[in-house]
């Protein structure tokens, strides 16, 4: 596992996260997950996402017509396992955010992520750090596609200069968006 010897982004002093820094996920990491039980229901003990008929659902409530005698097994869903292992697949760093726009940008990011999570419960924000004074927001995501979506949509709404870096050895995307440019 490649560790970030130098963090891609240094949180300002006093804002450092406790414990080790999240790391990019390796390619093929998802193959290491146990095969879920396709006959019964796998229920995530952390977020209550439910695996049924070959797909993850946000909760048991959204599954229609569950047979009454079905087996339910507790597990950790891939996104929660990733978060627990401090792994991420997408990173977005937005800088140069004007103070008066800060909350709007932050809210926009949360809404974009929320909409994506509704479609794919395994795509979500793992960690979000924001610093209004420095004008920066850093988001770590369980899915690289979500990093692209956030970058594109925030750029559409607020402009700025975007760079996307792909890593082959890690299945990770890093998006940087500078709103001051
Ligand atoms: Zn979960």
**Count, helices:** 3
Kindly state the percentage of residues in helix.
10-25%
Domain count, please report it.
2
SSE topology string: EEEEEHEEHEEHEE
Radius of gyration: 18 Å
Strands side by side in the biggest sheet = 8-9-7-11-10
Number of DSSP strands? 11
Description:
The chain is of the alpha/beta class and 181 residues long. The protein folds into two domains: 33-82, Dna Ligase, domain 1 (2-Layer Sandwich), CATH 3.30.1490; 88-178, 2-Layer Sandwich (Alpha-Beta Plaits). The chain has three helices and eleven strands, in the order E-E-E-E-E-H-E-E-H-E-E-H-E-E. It has helices at 78-84, 102-119, 144-158, and strands at residues 23-24, 41-44, 50-52, 55-57, 72-75, 87-88, 90-95, 125-131, 136-141, 161-166, 173-178. The strands form three sheets. The protein has a five-stranded mixed β-sheet. The protein has a four-stranded mixed β-sheet with strand order 4-3-2-5, with no helix packed on it. A two-stranded parallel sheet has the order 1-6. A hairpin with a 5-residue loop joins strand 2 and strand 3 (50-52). The longest helix has 18 residues, at 102-119. The radius of gyration is 18 Å and the shape is elongated. The chain starts with 22 loop residues before the first strand and ends with a strand. Bound molecules: zinc ion. Residues 44, 46-47, 49, 77, 79-80 line the site of zinc ion. Zinc ion binds at residues 44, 46-47, 49, 77, 79-80.
